[in-house]
Structure to design on (213 residues):
C-alpha cells in the first residue's frame, strides 16, 4: 500500500481543479490533498485515481467523483468532534474525508461484500470511525442518535423519515434526491417539526437501496 510523491503531485493537481470548480472549504481541500484515493480503488484504476471521475468498486457500487465528495463535505460544514452519520460507506473514501475533518463518524453499508472490505481497509490507513455497520441505510442508526449531521452517498427517491428523526435540532442533512438524476439537497433542522430546505443542482448517484439482504 504505497503512497508516493507522484501520487501527492496528482492530488495537488486534483485540489487545484476542485478550487476551479468552486470548492472553497480549506479543510475539505486539505483532506482531498492528503487522503490516498488510489488505495480505495481496485489497483487497475490506480493510474486514474486522481481524475475527477467516479469508478466502480464492486457490488454494483461506485466511489463518487472527488468533486461530489468535496461538495457534500463542504455542505456539511464539519467541525471537530461532530457526530456524523454516513449512509453508504462504500469504498470508505468519504468516511476518510469526514474522519480527517475531525468528525466522529458512524457509517452504514448495505452491501456486505463492501462492508467487510472497507472495515478491513480503513484501520490500515489510520482511519478509525466510531462505528461501522452492515445494515439498511433507510433506518439510520437509532441506537446512536441524535447526530449533528447526516450525509447520504446514494440517490434517494425520498428523504427517509428515520434520518430526519435522528438529526439534532440545528443539524444538517445532505442527501441526493431523485430517481434517475438527483438534486443535491440540504435540510437544516430548525425545531422538532420544521426543516429548512436548500437545493444545489443535479448530480448522479447509484440508488439508495432499502432492506438489507
Amino acid at each position: 500500500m504505497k503512497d508516493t510523491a507522484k501520487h501527492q503531485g496528482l492530488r495537488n493537481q486534483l485540489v487545484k481543479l476542485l478550487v476551479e470548480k468552486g470548492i472553497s472549504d480549506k479543510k475539505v481541500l486539505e483532506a482531498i490533498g492528503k487522503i490516498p484515493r488510489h488505495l480505495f480503488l481496485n489497483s487497475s484504476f490506480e493510474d486514474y485515481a486522481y481524475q475527477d471521475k467516479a469508478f466502480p468498486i464492486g457490488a454494483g457500487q461506485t466511489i463518487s467523483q472527488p468533486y461530489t465528495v468535496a461538495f457534500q463535505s463542504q455542505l456539511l460544514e464539519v467541525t471537530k468532534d461532530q457526530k456524523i452519520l454516513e449512509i453508504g460507506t462504500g469504498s470508505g473514501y468519504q468516511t476518510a474525508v469526514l474522519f480527517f475533518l475531525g468528525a466522529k463518524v458512524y457509517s452504514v453499508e448495505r452491501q456486505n461484500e463492501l462492508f467487510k472490505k472497507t472495515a478491513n481497509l480503513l484501520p490500515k490507513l489510520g482511519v478509525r470511525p466510531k462505528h461501522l455497520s452492515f445494515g439498511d441505510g433507510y433506518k439510520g442508526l437509532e441506537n446512536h442518535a441524535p447526530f449533528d449531521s447526516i450525509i447520504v452517498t446514494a440517490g434517494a427517491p425520498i428523504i427517509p423519515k428515520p434520518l430526519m428523526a435522528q438529526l439534532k435540532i440545528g443539524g444538517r442533512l445532505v442527501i441526493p434526491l431523485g430517481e434517475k438524476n438527483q438534486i443535491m439537497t440540504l435540510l437544516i433542522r430548525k425545531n422538532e417539526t420544521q426543516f429548512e430546505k436548500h437545493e444545489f443542482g443535479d448530480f448522479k448517484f447509484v440508488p439508495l437501496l432499502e432492506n438489507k439482504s
In short: The chain has a mean pLDDT of 94.
